[in-house]
Design a protein that fits this description.
By secondary structure, this protein is α+β, with helices and mostly antiparallel strands. 30% of the residues lie in helices and 27% in strands. The chain has three helices and nine strands, in the order H-H-H-E-E-E-E-E-E-E-E-E. The strands form two sheets. Strands 5-4-7-8-9 form a five-stranded antiparallel β-sheet, with no helix packed on it. Strands 1, 2, 3 and 6 form a four-stranded antiparallel β-sheet that branches. The longest helix is centred in the middle third of the chain and has 32 residues. It is elongated, with a radius of gyration of 50 Å. The N and C termini lie far apart (130 Å).
Length: 241
């Protein structure tokens, strides 16, 4: 009987009848040192580098080709659809803006001022009393901010107004829609140094409910002795915005 070596029993390979080692009985897994060799070999490193470079190159080609594909494969019908959609957006925005402006123009306050005829009279101290009244012909309220009135013996004319000689009074009072001043509801009473027929001019400045400031002007010829008045002056002295 063969003796065992110091390290343990001897391992013998099974032999086939021809005296050669039977391949089927050998371990089919390659030794670990062979796997490590193939992993660390220069050829394997080169193959990995080439594969990585090839992947990056393919990705760059795909990225660079996106604008070309988008340009070359875009049809005329697609461009027409994009342009049509853009036009719809612009038209819709303009329609909304116009509707909003029209709504404000229709719904805003429209305040006018002028001398209350029944209030015109000559005072005991030799002055003419000229009370100014208000009317709001709009659909919403307005807030009076400023009112002015002046007097002159010559009829105001020209293409520009001049209120440097007029008396200006600051106000902060609301005027509801449909309001019309009666004789005792004058917004302010002004006094003229003239007692014969002369001209009274001025304006009222007010804000609508959207905070937009408007100005309404007036110009009348008043006769304190007869207690009458009539429109006077050029158009610019009686316009409004």
């Amino acid at each position: 009987m063969p003796k065992n070596s110091a390290s343990g029993p001897a391992k013998t390979a099974q032999m086939n009848p021809s005296g050669q080692t039977n391949p089927a009985k050998q371990n089919q897994s390659p030794p670990a040192y062979r796997i490590q060799f193939f992993v660390n070999s220069p050829n394997a490193a080169n193959n990995r580098t080439e594969a990585k470079n090839g992947s990056n190159s393919s990705t760059e080609e795909q990225i660079q080709s996106i604008p070309d594909v988008a340009l070359c494969k875009t049809r005329v019908s697609d461009l027409a659809l994009i342009f049509f959609t853009y036009c719809l957006v612009v038209v819709g925005w303009l329609t909304i803006s116009a509707s909003n402006s029209n709504m404000r123009a229709v719904e805003r306050a429209r305040i006018y001022t002028g001398v209350i005829t029944d209030g015109i009279l000559v005072t005991n101290d030799g002055r003419t009393r000229a009370p100014l009244g208000l009317t709001n012909q709009g659909k919403t309220a307005g807030t009076i901010k400023r009112i002015a009135c002046g007097f002159t013996l010559t009829e105001p004319a020209g293409d520009a107004t001049d209120y440097s000689a007029a008396e200006t009074v600051a106000k902060n009072s609301a005027v509801p829609p449909g309001f019309a001043s009666a004789t005792q509801q004058a917004v302010h009473v002004f006094f003229s140094a003239h007692t014969a027929a002369h001209y009274c001019f001025g304006y009222v400045e007010y804000d609508d409910i959207w905070g937009v400031t408007h100005t309404s002007r007036f110009c009348n010829k008043i006769d304190p002795q007869r207690r009458t008045q009539e429109p006077a002056g050029s158009a610019v002295w009686s316009n409004d915005d």
